[in-house]
Amino acid sequence: MIRLENIKLQRGPQILLNDASLTLHPKQKAGFIGANGAGKSSLFALLRGQLNLDGGELYIPKEWRIAHMRQEITDQSRLAIDYVLDGDTRLRSILKQLTEAESKHEGAQLAHLHTELENADGYTAEARARRLLSGLGFSNEEMEKPIKHFSGGWQMRLNLAQALMCPSDLLLLDEPTNHLDLDAIIWLESWLKSYQGTLVLISHDRDFLDSVVDHIIHLEQQKLTLYTGGYSAFERTRAERLAQQQQAYEKQQAQRAHMESFISRFKAKATKARQAQSRIKALERLEELAPAHVDSPFNFSFRESDKISSTLLGLREAVLGYSDKTVLSNVKLHVVPGARIGLLGPNGAGKSTLIKTLAGELLLLSGQLTQGENLAVGYFAQHQLEALDDQASPLLHLQRIAPTEREQTLRNFLGGFDFKGDRCDEVITNFSGGEKARLALALIAWQKPNLLLLDEPTNHLDLEMRHALTMALQEFSGAVLVVSHDRHLLKSTTDEFLLVANGKVDSFEGDLDDYARWLIDYRALQQPLNTKQSTDDKVDKKAQRQQAASLRQQLAPYKKEADKLEKTLETLQNQLVVIEEKLADSNLYEASQKENLRQLLEQQANLKNQQATAEESWLIALEQLESLQQQLSAID
């Protein structure tokens, strides 16, 4: 287990943790939350041995293997598939030793290393790496490309795949969903649910946390508090705790006021001096309870448009894409005031292409785009963060689009996005991604849009800001069309979905759970194409033969187990038939046969339980056997 006892952690003059304690048991999955800058990443660095404690004790089993998600890549020339395989350092070490042994023709060492390779699942390593990359949205062709080919967001996906590839007892993931789309997040959820080690992940995605974790670690006021359940359970429990804390605080303040009143009235009187000194000491011992500061630093809304059209935006027989590539065909879309539309679809299907076209960033290849007379679009996309002026302050950004507005009015508005005081006047060159995203949203909110086109608006936003954005969108009276991997935002702010897939845009009848099932079917249909493409890749024939031999060895025990369980089931069924024949005898139900009937019924129940258990084990063995046979067939 992981145990932190009364630890103190300090970075420069800032104390991040003070007298904090936490215990995590093996195989627990915990979400780690707290305000930005509170020390979450520093605690990760401590767990990885990169920081030293300033006080207290930290215990992690020495034999535990720790995997974490890197935040940078040094060798940009490495191929994507090789970079992910690098995550299994033991495998890389064995392969290096194999190469050396082969060059020296050391037969005994080669035999030993091939056994080591099999024990490390080395023969299936590349297939596992390719499954990870496929789940995270990479095509087979992209897996063979150098890392420098990919954008920063896709490089972070490679870092995530490498962390998942690493065999580990403790997996530390810092914002793993930040650069993922919805289908990749759904895949990652499934992978993490089956992970057998201890998981600690930092995330601002409440639905992701609810789906994956069974505990929440909350870092607040330099302390660590462990809550049971996912994020929704944490919210309820903490709300109850804060309500109790507020009551305790108010009671304590009343007690403190009474003590101070007594002290001020009587400490100068000799007859009351002893009682006054007693009250002073009691006041010093009185535990300091902080008031329940639960108010979010964010409080904003989208300013309402002065005018609106009956139809805001429309597409007819539209072909969307780029000059050399058609992405979507025959698109029909009618956006009216009050519409709340969420766009769903696999990665690369054309969701962003559709939004860019509606925003006017892409021209139609053919067809008709109709805009309402009073259309006012508020468009948010990640590339707009790069378009902000790094040498301007939040206030100057807003003054440029509202030059006649009073400065105090602009400052008050920016305050709702937590740009307050000096922060309002600082140039944004050193602002975080989250701060720049908040500024971009503030600029949109000021301009009175009646149609919001939002492409992944929650990237880089923390939980409090995501909640504030959700509330603002719920109050917004205009139309909303949004692409987001944040399912809570989608569920809370949209009332219809469009599915962008296979070159088309269609209405999707169902909810996000239905979409998750649709994705599974969609991937299954894509699998034959991937398999065919992968067969064209260069294959190590020697490794194939070794893998086939290994699979045949693995087949034997499963086949033996399946045959044994099948015979057991046959025996149990025969015994049940005998008992059921006895139970069919009407004489058995006479009063004199009461004990005999009880015994037969008990035997029948026991046999049925044995039958159910054996049948489940038999089906598992058959499933594993079938899986291995399919792998063997694919190799042969």
Automatic annotation (TrEMBL):
Gene3D superfamilies (UniProt xref): P-loop containing nucleotide triphosphate hydrolases
One Pfam match: ABC_tran
PROSITE patterns attached to this UniProt entry: ABC_TRANSPORTER_1, ABC_TRANSPORTER_2
InterPro entries, alphabetized: AAA+_ATPase, ABC_tran_Xtn, ABC_transporter-like_ATP-bd, ABC_transporter-like_CS, ABCF, P-loop_NTPase
UniProt entry keywords in alphabetical sequence: ATP-binding, Coiled coil, Nucleotide-binding, Repeat
Sections of the chain in a coiled coil: 548-617
All copies of domain ABC transporter, residue ranges: 2-246, 313-527
An example Gene Ontology molecular-function term: ATP binding
Superkingdom assignment: Bacteria
Keyword hit for Transcription: no
Assigned protein family: Belongs to the ABC transporter superfamily. ABCF family. YheS subfamily.
Name this polypeptide is given: Probable ATP-binding protein YheS
